[in-house]
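Please, structure for the following, as tokens.
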Amino acid sequence: MFDFLQMTLSGRVPQEHSGSNFNLRWRWLAQGVLQLEPLHGYRKSVVLSAGIHGNETAPIELLAALVSDLLHGKRRLKVRLLVIFGNPSAMINGERYNQIDLNRLFCRHYEHFPKCPETERAAQLEALVTEFFNQSKTDHRLHFDLHTAIRESHHQRFGLLPHKDKGIYSRTMLDWLHHAGIEALVINQAPSGTFTYFTSQYCQADSCTLELGKARPFGQNDLNQFALISQGLLSLISGINLLPDAAEPMKVYRVTQELKKISDQFCLNFPESIKNFTRFSAGDILARDGEISYQVQQPDEWILFPNASVRPGLRAGLMLVQVPTASLYG
């Protein structure tokens, strides 16, 4: 049986493009894309992706171990499953991306950029995921896109919910996230070019981007730190309740403003080492860009993903406000 991760990193094509064991049939669709389907029916269609940013390796290793167990018959599959390693060339290079951030190119945003490996990959993944969900025999569709963050965070494991026009999210998905150790959720307030926004908006999937710790190179991850999410994924695909009762309720945040880098004069007004979810108070200056200044507008706001090194025209950070959990249900 082939090693899915090593085959992806080598760029090789498997000698056999499909096969089966006592529990499932599998089909290799493209570099870093593997479809698995149980032989005896299913009630959910699930997409699990990692490596959309090539240097975020822990989730890649988690999914690789899960696929290996399934292919070798060590775990039973109860859902129709598509596993995606998003940006293989960036994974090989140990880089976040090659030319353009892949997670800004979905929903046909790739059409606005010169042709490159990332634009071609975004188009390919859109087509493969759309076909996967269109062929599903169930309306219960899920997509979890697994990441690790560049910087440290006051919430070690958190989720980013894609914008929904009606602002209502699946209670079943939210309960799973809670029991899988997700400490906080961030509600995006606008459409975007992320993978999960694409699957939510265009494939009608219950989707969430998961940030699961700090980005490290292959082989340097302590996978024991990812035990809860690993158990959660196994529970999801095998239909076995392996998750404990969650101790603390999830905190919920809503994006209140975006720090957009207009020019190369952009600079943050705080240390680059600041942690995600650091709190600021009303009136605090967050960043300057020439004559433009960004400041805290609400009594309290929390910073997420500050990055002054992005290209002009891109987001250099998000500011959040805390909202009641009930806001997830419309």
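The chain is about 25% helix and 30% strand. Residues 4-238 form a domain with the Aminopeptidase fold (CATH 3.40.630.10).
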